[in-house]
Amino acid sequence: MTFIRTATIASMAVSAGLMAAATSLAAPAAADPGADAFVAALTSAGLAGVDPATAVSVGQSVCPMLAEPGQQVANVAADVSDAIGRPLGPATMFTGIAISIFCPAAVTSLANGQSPLGPIPLGLLGI
Predict the structure, then answer these.
(1) Are 59 and 109 in a shared domain?
(2) What is the Cα–Cα distance from 66 to 81, expressed in whole angstroms?
(3) Is there a single domain that holds both residue 101 and residue 53?
(4) Residue 5: alpha-carbon gap to chain centroid
(5) Which of 17, 31, 47, 109 qualifies as a cystine partner to 42, CB 3.0-4.6 A?
(6) What was the pLDDT predicted at 93?
(7) What is the C-alpha to C-alpha distance for residues 6 and 81, in angstroms, rounded to an integer?
(8) What's the rounded Cα separation, in Å, for the pair 92 and 73?
């Protein structure tokens, strides 16, 4: 009887340990779908080779940069170029992809012919 109790307790302890390990390992796997879509879009566009975490961080910074007073897309693309270490052409493509993924309200506004001159209001960026 003592053997059965010991075996049951040991089995429960192993099960609890496995569940705790599975839970801790599952947490990092829950990624941001926008970030995943962004990295996939960059790869599809031929902009591979940028560290995914850096790419997502820089991509997510595009909308707030565009919202700064006096900021233009060309200025943001130049900042992106510096941040990712790529020439202005690929950085401009990167910036456009970031806007389409992370600033959907701005894309909708532009598609409706409401192209703001100068900074894009925060509300249009979905911020």
Answers:
(1) yes
(2) 15
(3) yes
(4) 50
(5) 47
(6) 95
(7) 63
(8) 8
Secondary structure element (H or E) that encloses residue 126, with its range:
none
Residue 32 has a CB neighbour count (10 Å cut-off) of 10
Closest among 51, 52, 30 to 39, alpha carbons compared: 52
Q: 14 lies in which domain range?
A: 1-30
Q: What is the pLDDT of residues 34-82, one digit of tens each?
A: 899 999 999 999 998 899 999 999 999 999 998 888 888 899 999 999 9
pTM greater than 0.70 (yes/no): no
CA-to-CA dists, residue 119 to 66, 67, 100, 125, angstroms: 6, 5, 16, 11
Shared-domain flag, residues 18 and 70: no
**What's the domain count of the chain?**
2
Q: What number of other Cβ atoms are within 10 A of residue 118's Cβ?
A: 10
Q: How far apart are CA 60 and CA 2, in angstroms?
A: 59
Q: Round to whole Å and give the CA distance between 63 and 9.
A: 54
Q: What is the 3-state secondary structure (H, E, C) of 97-118?
A: HHHHHHCHHHHHHHHCCCCCCC
Mean pLDDT of the chain: 73
Cα dihedral 104, 107, 109, 112 in deg (nearest 10): -130
